[in-house]
Amino acid sequence: MARRRDEAMATTKRVNSWVVTDDFWRRVEPLIPVRERAPDREYVRKPGAGRPAKPARQVFEAIVYVLRTGCQWKALPSERFGSASAVHKRFLEWEKAGVFEAIWKAGLAEYDQMEGIAWRWQSIDGALFKAPMAQEAVGPNPTDRGKKWQQAPPARGRPWRPVVTRRDRSERQ
What we know:
By secondary structure, the protein is an all-alpha fold. Helices cover 43% and strands 0% of the residues.
């Protein structure tokens, strides 16, 4: 029994959820914009100078890693994906170009073709305001014990200060 399980595990390789497979990349790659230098802009460096850009597949895999693990951008493993700030910068470029919306639409169209989406029946749930009776049912927040500025009334609209006697400037001697 154990041998059969070991043979089955040897034939099916488990892939981490953030790894972009070749099949998936073939579908996503046409949607990724190609980076080009703006012809009307004057650059200090010559073309090809400086650090080369990360491959688009590596950047996409890093973005999928952040989405699947929920980690912060700065927590990206630099030994695998490179600079987190460079990946985030490319993410912002692609988001502005509409790459992720295009991927979403392509995924929906593919799923609709495979399984079919019941477009007539859709449901949305959400709350845009607090429940009107919630405060009475729950009671006051225990962390709102009051702050110093709430305890003492402001003196003539100014923040609270200790009382110090001064002469009034209008009373000149």
